Amino acid sequence: SVKHLFGLQFLRLKMTTLTRQDLNFGQVVADILCEFLEVAIHLILYVREVYPSGIFQKRKKYNVPVQMSCHPELNQYIHDTLHCVKPLIEKNDAEKVVVVIMDKEHHPVERFVFEISQPPLLSISSDTLLSHVEQLLRAVILKISVCDAVLENNPPGCTFTVLVHTREAATRNMEKVQVIKDFPWIVADEQEVHMQEPRLIPLKTMTSDIVKMQLYVEERAQKAS
Amino acid sequence: MVPPQCVYFRMLYHYLDQKRKEGSARLHATYLVSGKFVENGTTSHKVSVVREDQLEDAKSKMSLTVSVHVYSVQKAVLKDSGPLYSADYDAVKENLRNCSRYSAIRCADAVPRSSAEVQQACETTQAPPPETEQIKANHSNLASKPTSKQPKGIMGMFANKNVSKNQDSSKEIKLEQKEVTPVVETSKTKPAPKTNPVTNFFAKQAAKKPDKSIKEEVEIAQTSSSVDEKPTSPPPKAETPVKEELAKDAVVEKDTSKTKRLEHSDSEEEKNESRRKKRRRIKKPEPDSSDDEVIPDSPPQLQEKRDPSPSPEIQVKKEPVAVSHSDELSDCKRRKRRRVLKSRTFVDDEGCIVTEKDYESESYSETEDDFKFSQPTPKNPNPPKPSTGKKEEEKKSKKAAAASNKSTKQASIMGFFQKK
């Protein structure tokens, strides 16, 4: 289940308080991004039929309908994953968050790559900023929901995993510190990271004052193995 | 005489047909089906958006199919209706107050019925009012001319704005527009009242399709056999009732907080005690008054007054009565109330979810744990003990003192002294 269902409007309120109190603005951006990634991952699983559509339920995010899973273990996995990713995003250590869809042999067939970059000096000026961000995120969500148009169908029996590409040596710290108990991060296998002859399909780019994000898909040329 | 919007339906259909014959692109369409629908003996006019594969099914369920036309064309198979709504969300939002501005249906003779006429119509007609009456339109046309009724929403298909956003996405609007513009030239030769909406629409080059979207929302809400089950309520309609409620609550709260501030300056202890109870949601936490207070278990009358009720106004009235009661029963040792820092999540008047921490009165029995008062009350048998008590109590009293200093300055500062 989605633990915080705060709309971005909440963060607007939170932010004005934060600037007065001088708290970490990176946290706000990380919150926004992790909320978004949670919705996006659920939506990808729905649209790409990684799981049967029966486990999904229509929910509202950014004032538009989105499909989110009701399966508790799946939700917990996604939530825990993003919980671990959040500190990386806060420090701007996360370069890419990748949702990899793999076939039965654990070879990736599709990789949804979210490239994230935050400007070094973050500043918030007005309320309209966040509603603009909401609008941009809505557009990305919309694009994910119709990405079927540009992608080939996946073979049956696919699984998924989430990879994080970090800048520099952030991974070393991650291995040492378990953010969530019994939920360790491990260095990804080469075969999960790289794909044979990928086709690059750009989906959406969003640029805002607080974050820039690019979403594209790397697709294996021949999916059926 | 054919209404101009028929032209667009035909264009869309023509486009779809052509592309399919060419075989160049795999296109999927959704259709808008409207007609008479009989359910449990009641006849209603049903409008629904269905996927192509469900089209025949939907048509067969209707006793009389009034209109079928292509609603949207997209490359992707739509698994659910979400994208249809999301695609023009921003356009709808901008035109919320002007929904019928770009409506294609105009009829000078059609005026909204007076309530008397409506009542009369309800009495005379057997059938229940059509479901689409939710949409503000010239509904008087509906009952009398079902065959000529065309959903207004199709105008929205040709939104310019979404072209830039969804280049290769759900609705192939761009292409349609190019094809439609030559038709506009020819349509200008038609009688003036009919072309006005058409030329206006294209002249303005505006990209608003509010009617369609509202229709869309209604349709999506009404679809039974089509894509999904859960209706999405129109966001403006949902938001405004919530906001109204919240605004009301906020106003009520603000009033009471003002009265409380006035009372606070008096700094009478009895008033402090009872005032604490009233406050459910405060902008300025006031834990300055005594932590505990003796209240009796019985009588229930007093208990009721002590319990925080959702309407602070009622509590304001009860305050003087409660004060007098406390005098009588204060020397009994019973359940006490203490102020506890609690975190509350609520939706404020802007529709933002806010988590606030403040002190709330909590009832607990004396034997449960030690407690202390920060301010003595003359009738209280337990004088304050600042040096004793648990760590939490100490912390609380310190914070109470700190808060009392700062409560006049900033509202939410207390929240930052606590770890989450």
Briefly say what this structure is.
The complex is a heterodimer of chains A (225) and B (420). Chain A is of the alpha+beta class and 225 residues long.
Structure, described:
The complex is a heterodimer of chains A (225) and B (420). Chain A is an alpha+beta fold and 225 residues long. Chain A has helices at 8-21, 25-47, 72-90, 127-145, 170-176, 190-193, and strands spanning 56-61, 64-69, 94-102, 108-117, 159-166, 198-207, 212-220. Chain A is built from six helices and seven strands, in the order H-H-E-E-H-E-E-H-E-H-H-E-E. A five-stranded antiparallel beta sheet of chain A has the order 5-3-4-7-6. Chain A is globular, with a radius of gyration of 17 Å. Chain A starts with 7 loop residues before the first helix and ends in a 5-residue tail after the last strand. Chain B is α+β, with helices and mostly antiparallel strands. In chain B, the strands form two sheets. Chain B has a three-stranded antiparallel beta sheet with strand order 2-1-3. In chain B, a hairpin with a 5-residue loop joins strand 5 (336-347) and strand 6 (353-364). In chain B, helix 1 (5-22) packs across helix 8 (173-187) and helix 12 crosses helix 14. Classes of the chains: A alpha+beta (225), B alpha+beta (420). Chains A and B meet through helix 1, strand 1, strand 2 and helix 4 of A and helix 3 of B.
